[in-house]
Amino acid sequence: MAHSDDQGDSPVPILTTAIDGENTEVPVLTSALRAEPVPVLADPAVAEASRLNEDQLLALRSRLTVLTRDLAERLIEETLVELEMALVEKVSARLRDQLPDMLERALRDHLDPGD
User: Fold this and answer.
1) What does the domain layout of the chain look like in residue ranges?
2) How far apart are CA 29 and CA 35, in angstroms?
3) How many Cβ atoms are within 10 Å of 34's Cβ, its own excluded?
4) pTM given for the model
């Protein structure tokens, strides 16, 4: 895997690590490989045959729309439940904190012998 100047494509660097004086790893370029072309995933004839016609495209678009809408509705419902739980907890906490003082003030005002 030695680097040579006759490679057509730009080489891809290969990095390894070396230990420096402080025992930390430092990347070191040791060699380079030629970049390989990306393979063709399908024969052009197969790709052409697998193209969707207008009816199939419309059906796929409709299905994706339904799935997207269902997902959005489910996420909104879950979020609303979470928000409701958070609000109930917040109201409960405020009632726990403020209700005893409020009741004490109301009782003192009502039972005050000065009235």
Assistant:
1) 11-34+52-108
2) 16
3) 15
4) 0.43
